């Protein structure tokens, strides 16, 4: 197996709220290998987005250590691509300029790579369109291309397809797997959709809430391309579902949040 | 056959609709002008206070032919433009600095808000004492008016840039200067353009105040001079010139707006 890219050790993070201190993450340990596709799933409030934002360097003030390629993460940067739930394209820039962002399209090297990426995310013909003219799925593909242009060591995706309809979502999953297969970029993908989590990942990380902790990690040893209708897929899906269901019971006995 | 009709129909109708709407807007002023002319000729309204449209037109033609109108207008336009350039650019500059840096805001904004509350008319005597009745006092008075809309709107536009965009620029590794150039300014552009339109409007307003009060040239002077000789048609000509100049400059900014804000939902291509 490939070597460790991202190492998370004893990561804890708490927020000050009006009601006092809330522990969002408690002693999370996780090792992610180069080229792996990890999905993170859990009920709302389990800290899955917080985990992703800490890896991205967007949230600070945590305890524990996180290293990317052996280096401590000190802040956000282009080595950690981030895809938000909304596409967050700059509305005043065309598709190609959004992908280039701070880089100049007059640079032939940038031009070539942008063209390649537009091909990869299947947006040929829309180079000069503004974000308002794109559908949700197209806009999210532009956002992915924007992150990929910077050759990130890891791509962090925070429920990127959550706002899309079921058909577009399935299509986007195929597009993302296609990109992953070609570029071998390490992916960490947060979702609340069990099908999506099992369909995409090498390993599904299940978080439990209050405080956010890793409940279990389910390896998905199905070959790609996967079919959601096969019995082996359904078996794994059921396993993840049962693990998540047991969280609900836990929550009920705790009486928390109800 | 029926396909062709349905394809051409909407755009044709839209084109007609635009002219119809324009015509709709012209009915009221048109009717007023016609009635004005008729009642004036019949002697129902005073031709000293309300010279008929044709008389005003004749005065306009006379002033245009002698070249007086053009001379006055050119002087006025240069003043308005100079005042707008000075006040507007300072407003933009301070709006950007105050919008970006909380310390600069704390330092300048209270003072600027105080100055904003002083009516332009109230400072006219002071400006005349300080700068005489030459060009400086007029241009500074116009600049004072033009400063604030651009200042306030630029500041607001910058303050309203959503934090989620800043997160994107951080993830993309923008430097502080890139954040300003590539995020803050374009995101604030709709507000900046709105401020520009309001500033230009106030520039013309400030010009009239300056020229009516103390001046020996310009359209405002032409009007106050005509008032002294009860030459009402010339006063009307001045009003029309100011209205037209204001409308045309506003139209130019709106054209720029449409080009620069093509990306916005509310501006269709």
Automatic annotation (TrEMBL), chain A:
GO MF annotation terms: ATP binding; ATP hydrolysis activity
Keyword set includes 4Fe-4S: no
Keyword Amino-acid biosynthesis: no
InterPro entries: AAA+_ATPase, ABC_transporter-like_ATP-bd, ABC_transporter-like_CS, ABC_transporter_ATP-bind, P-loop_NTPase
Keywords for this protein: ATP-binding, Nucleotide-binding, Transport
UniProt xrefs under CDD domains: ABC_NrtD_SsuB_transporters
Name recorded for this polypeptide: Sulfonate ABC transporter ATP-binding protein
Residue ranges of domain ABC transporter in the record: 6-234
Automatic annotation (TrEMBL), chain B:
PROSITE patterns: ABC_TM1
Primary localization: membrane
Gene Ontology CC terms: plasma membrane
Location of the protein in the cell: Cell membrane
Keywords recorded for this protein, A-Z: Cell membrane, Membrane, Transmembrane, Transmembrane helix, Transport
Keyword Protein transport in annotation: no
Positions of transmembrane segments: 21-39, 80-102, 114-133, 139-158, 202-222, 234-253
Superkingdom of this protein's organism: Bacteria
Keyword Membrane annotated: yes
GO biological process, one term: alkanesulfonate transmembrane transport
Domain ABC transmembrane type-1: 73-253
Record's bilayer topology term: Multi-pass membrane protein
Similarity remark: Belongs to the binding-protein-dependent transport system permease family.
Protein name, per record: ABC transporter permease
Organism of this sequence: Paenibacillus rhizosphaerae
């Amino acid at each position: 197996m490939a070597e460790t890219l991202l190492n998370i050790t004893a990561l804890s993070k708490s927020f000050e709220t009006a009601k006092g201190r809330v522990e969002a993450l408690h002693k999370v340990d996780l090792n992610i290998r180069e080229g792996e596709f990890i999905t993170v799933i859990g009920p709302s409030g389990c800290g899955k987005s917080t985990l992703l934002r800490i890896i991205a360097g967007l949230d600070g003030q945590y305890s524990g250590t996180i290293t990317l390629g052996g280096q401590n993460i000190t802040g956000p940067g282009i080595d950690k691509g981030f895809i938000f739930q909304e596409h967050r394209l700059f509305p005043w820039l065309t598709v190609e300029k959004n992908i280039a962002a701070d880089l100049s399209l007059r640079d032939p090297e940038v031009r070539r790579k942008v063209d390649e990426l537009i091909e990869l995310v299947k947006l040929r013909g829309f180079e000069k369109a503004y974000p308002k003219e794109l559908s949700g799925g197209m806009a999210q593909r532009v956002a992915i291309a924007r992150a990929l242009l910077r050759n990130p060591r890891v791509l962090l995706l925070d429920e990127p397809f959550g706002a899309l309809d079921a058909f577009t979502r399935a299509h986007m999953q195929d597009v993302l797997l296609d990109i992953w297969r070609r570029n071998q970029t390490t992916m960490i993908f947060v979702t609340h959709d069990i099908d999506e989590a099992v369909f995409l990942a090498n390993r599904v990380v299940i978080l439990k809430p209050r405080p956010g902790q890793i409940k279990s990690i389910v390896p998905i040893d199905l070959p790609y391309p996967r079919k959601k209708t096969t019995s082996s897929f359904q078996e794994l899906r059921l396993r993840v579902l049962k693990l998540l269901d047991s969280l609900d019971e836990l929550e009920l006995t705790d009486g928390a949040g109800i | 056959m029926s396909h062709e009709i349905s394809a051409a129909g909407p755009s044709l109708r839209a084109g007609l609709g635009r002219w119809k709407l324009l015509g709709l807007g012209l009915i009221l002023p048109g009717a007023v002008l016609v009635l004005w002319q008729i009642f004036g000729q019949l002697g129902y309204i005073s031709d000293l206070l309300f010279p008929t449209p044709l008389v005003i037109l004749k005065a306009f033609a006379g002033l245009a032919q002698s070249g007086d109108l053009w001379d006055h207008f050119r002087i006025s336009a240069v003043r308005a433009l100079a005042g707008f350039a000075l006040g507007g650019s300072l407003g933009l500059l301070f709006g950007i600095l105050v919008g970006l840096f909380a310390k600069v805001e704390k330092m300048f904004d209270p003072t600027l808000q105080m100055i904003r509350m002083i009516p332009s008319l109230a400072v006219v005597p002071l400006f005349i004492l300080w700068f005489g009745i030459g060009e400086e006092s007029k241009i500074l008075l116009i600049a004072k008016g033009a400063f604030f809309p651009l200042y306030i709107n630029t500041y607001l536009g910058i303050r309203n840039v959503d934090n989620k965009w800043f997160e994107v620029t951080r993830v993309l590794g923008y430097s502080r200067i890139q954040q300003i150039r590539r995020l803050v300014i374009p995101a604030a552009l709709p507000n900046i353009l709105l401020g520009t339109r309001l500033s230009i409007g106030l520039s013309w307003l400030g010009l009239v105040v300056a020229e009516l009060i103390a001046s020996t040239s310009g359209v405002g002077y032409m009007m106050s001079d005509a008032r002294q000789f009860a030459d009402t048609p010339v006063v009307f000509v001045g009003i029309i010139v100011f209205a037209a100049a204001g409308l045309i400059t506003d139209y130019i900014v709106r054209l720029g707006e449409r080009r620069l804000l093509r990306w916005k939902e509310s501006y269709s291509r």
